Amino acid sequence: MGRKKGLPEFEETAPDGFDPENPYKDPVAMVEMREHIVREKWIQIEKAKILREKVKWCYRVEGVNHYQKCRLLVQQYLDSTRGVGWGKDHRPISLHGPKPVAVDAE
Fold first, then answer.
1. What gap in Å lies between CA 102 and CA 96, rounded to an integer?
2. Per the structure, how many domains does the chain have?
3. Is position 5 within any domain?
4. What are the tens digits of pLDDT across the range 42-59?
5. Range of the domain at 86
6. Which residues of the chain have pLDDT under 70?
7. Residue 83 and residue 93: Cα distance in Å, rounded?
């Protein structure tokens, strides 16, 4: 029993034959699309976990100055967690989408 050489290669794009209007038309494309969506969600979740660890580290290192020093990291973390997770696909975008940027009126 030896180790397998190399890692499996996954396509990073959605399947070609998937029709969102009639998903049951091609069952193979439907399963590939489901796997693609799950893979993309896991990638988003893991990115958020990595950013959370960076925020924890920054809070520990910076101490009382973490409000100023870690602000950008916290903003990145909060942006990365919006809409990430299971069961948030059918919620309105206003509840889990990117936070709207306020524009100053002149």
1. 17
2. 1
3. no
4. 888 899 999 999 999 999
5. 27-95
6. 1-4, 7-8, 10-11, 85-102, 105-106
7. 8
